[in-house]
């Protein structure tokens, strides 16, 4: 019995430089190792996006629980890689752009910090291998969200 402590996935070659990953939950993701004219993100780009997705889930959830009226949340990710093989990341930076109606900067700062220090499994794991930094900005929305 697998339990909650194990995740399972498979990755299969799909021809050329493409691969298809299938999660244990039945979802598929395409990867391509050809960064110049491939048909999908590279595995390193996918890792970068996974950090952003994981952190964004936390930030939005924390802000919603704090009754902040968020209308959009976007995270801009920058990954710096070393010049030698293996070309691992040396630094990753996540910049959150939160848009909402009367959103408190203090709440956004708290949400970003909680994600970075306590909740985001991906970025916390990556912190063991590299420098991971976070920043944020808050934009006012003229339109109050429904609900």
TrEMBL record:
InterPro entries per UniProt = KH_dom-like_a/b (IPR015946), OsmC/Ohr_fam (IPR003718), OsmC/Ohrsf (IPR036102)
Q: Name one Pfam family in it.
A: OsmC
Could you identify this protein by its name?
A: OsmC family protein
The organism's taxonomy opens as: Bacteria, Pseudomonadati, Pseudomonadota, Gammaproteobacteria, Chromatiales
């Amino acid at each position: 019995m697998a339990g909650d402590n194990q995740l399972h996935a498979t990755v299969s070659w799909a021809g050329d430089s493409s691969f298809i990953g299938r999660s244990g939950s039945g979802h598929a993701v395409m990867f391509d190792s050809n960064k110049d004219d491939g048909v999908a993100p590279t595995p390193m780009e996918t890792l970068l996006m996974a950090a952003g997705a994981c952190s964004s889930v936390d930030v939005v959830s924390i802000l919603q629980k704090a009754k902040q009226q968020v209308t959009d949340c976007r995270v801009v990710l920058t990954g710096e890689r070393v010049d030698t093989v293996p070309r691992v990341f040396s630094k990753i930076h996540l910049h959150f752009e939160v848009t909402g109606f009367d959103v408190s900067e203090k709440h956004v700062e708290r949400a970003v910090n909680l994600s970075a220090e306590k909740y985001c499994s991906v970025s916390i794991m990556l912190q063991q291998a590299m420098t991971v930094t976070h920043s944020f900005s808050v934009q006012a929305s003229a339109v109050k969200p429904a609900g």
